[in-house]
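Review form for a predicted model. The reviewer records the input and the model, then writes brief findings.
Reviewer: anonymous (R2)
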Amino acid sequence: MGALSTALAGVSLADFSPLRSHFETLVSDFNAPGGGTRANFTAIIRFLSECALAFPALAAASLSTDSVVAARVTQLQADTSLISALTDLVSIEKNTAISTDLLVQPPDDPATVYATLVPDWTTGGVNIGAISEDTDISLGAGTIQVRGGRVLEHAKFVRVADKIISVMNTLFNMALDAEEKAETALIAGNTFFKDLADKLRRSMRLLPPSGPVAGIYAAVDRSRGVWKAPANVSVSAIIGPAVKITNEEQAGLNVHSTGKSINAIRSFVGKGTLVWGARTLAGNDNEWRYVPVRRFFNFVEESVKKASEPFVFEPNDANTWVKVRGLIENFLVIQWRQGALAGSKPQDAFFVKVGLGQTMTAQDILEGRLIVEIGMAAVRPAEFIILRFSHKMQES
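Model under review:
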């Protein structure tokens, strides 16, 4: 694999995925409007020459004698169709019209560029200087793009490009496969590398909890509502938490003296991995200690704010106040029925106040303010379930 990479240093490895696709991209660039330039045509020829020069480079590389790549390279030296294609590539580049009218000037000397093809990769082992100039391809008249297009579409050029690219692509895939097998064998046969690979795999699977927890928030919101604590909920499709936490260790995390509680993600036998906590960073505040309470108030605040927008610039009088109060009360009754608010009846669950003498003064009305006061008895999660037992003695 390393030898192949070195042999094709002129073309990045990314270009070989797939190799033919890169070649077709170069051809498309040349055929595109305004793309018919010497530089673009030269890029096509240089790409093929880099592929051609990879064969002798691989043959000269110190590949393992039992390597499938080395064996294949040796076989290719007897592949007459490949040798013919490499020789024809040299002859095409020697074509006077092509080198003069299509390539960047001054053109590279084929004898220098392809020197390493001799003697194993040219027909009959002839020197580059002895390879005849191509006379089959005629450029004709026209622009560089038109004349270059005739070269790219000529049967001889198509045959040469197809053969070189297909063989090199196969060879490259063989090298990738050989590298993968060698890596697998190394890991399987060496405890150190096996442990190292396992550790790397574990580290690559390690993810922050923010994404899964956000997904749990969304799932609980959809199935129950924002007032349901996003806790005691399974984290799906994971192996487990990176850190194992016991009941004793969690006690100090969940109820911390500073109030900065940590909601642990724990693994339980028979239950899987669960989010085991629903506290906010205001753990010492009885009002805002729990995540569902904070989120429910945020939810109501945003919902009421959006629902009351149509009343902006409406007359600030009793008619508007009744409409606003009715709208909000209807919304809160729905939340109460769904279990978001405590109380056996709506009057115990919430109140909505709006009006002169209740939430506003005459000055507020003069200044254009409509003030609504809402109170809610939000339900709180049963964080600790305490059971008490007594043993009643038998009476005589």
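Findings: The CA atoms of residues 100 and 379 lie 86 Å apart.
Further findings: The chain has three domains: 2-195, 210-276, 291-376.
Recommendation: see findings above.
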